[in-house]
Q: What sequence folds into this?
């Protein structure tokens, strides 16, 4: 059988619509995961009951298969009267699991900060929230943003599972087109390209954000951690 992409022409509209839907659910899921990862990173790097609860959350969501989490949200919650449509189930599921993995990355960035920088800010009289907002998070995110990019790329790849809850994203649409046309090679070649484009877009976004966060950094091997932190303040 010859390779013929023209067989996809009548189906390009639903395939592109599926790709757009995947991009939408992933963009919202990544945004939610980033916010949740920031909160969890701060909590797990701290002490007390907030730290214990955050670690419990991280352990649960990192040790349960993503497909089980999706099924629980979509099929399980209605049993207790909580109904969420497929699109927002996808957004919520990606946000929850991405936050769990991303929280550990943010925590690592926070723990890498020179303690003297934070102590100097406290001695200088900065309120706790200002220390977090103006010193801790900017410095931590500089170190964490590239590893977070890997988490976000994995979220895009994991989104293919959402076709199992009737969401017409690109994988589910491609499966239907393949069954209709009996041309799985061409259809799944399109799917390969679609996910490559989506993940590459995420990587480009992360690279741009990394450059933005580090725009005031001096690229010198002799720069000390305290000097870097001082610029972040």
A:
């Amino acid at each position: 059988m010859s390779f013929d992409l023209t067989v996809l022409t009548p189906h390009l509209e639903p395939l592109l619509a599926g790709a757009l839907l995947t991009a939408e659910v992933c963009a919202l899921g990544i945004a939610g995961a980033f916010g949740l990862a920031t909160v969890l990173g701060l909590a797990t790097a701290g002490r007390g009951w907030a730290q214990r609860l955050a670690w419990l959350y991280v352990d649960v969501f990192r040790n349960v298969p993503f497909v089980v989490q999706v099924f629980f949200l979509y099929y399980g919650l209605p049993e207790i009267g909580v109904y969420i449509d497929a699109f927002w189930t996808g957004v919520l599921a990606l946000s929850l699991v991405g936050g769990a993995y991303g929280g550990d990355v943010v925590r690592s960035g926070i723990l890498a900060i020179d303690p003297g920088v934070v102590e100097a800010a406290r001695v200088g009289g900065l309120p706790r929230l200002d220390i977090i907002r103006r010193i801790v998070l900017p410095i931590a995110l500089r170190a964490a943003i590239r590893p977070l990019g890997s988490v976000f790329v994995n979220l895009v790849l994991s989104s293919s599972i959402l076709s199992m809850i009737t969401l017409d994203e690109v994988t589910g649409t491609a499966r239907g087109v393949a069954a209709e046309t009996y041309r799985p090679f061409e259809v799944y070649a399109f799917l390969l390209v679609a996910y490559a484009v989506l993940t590459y877009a995420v990587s480009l976004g992360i690279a741009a954000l990394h450059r933005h966060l580090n725009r005031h950094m001096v690229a010198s091997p002799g720069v000390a951690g305290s000097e870097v932190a001082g610029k972040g303040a």
User: Anything to note?
Assistant: DSSP finds nine helices and no strands in the chain. Residues 219-233 have pLDDT under 50 and may be disordered. The longest helix spans residues 12-44.
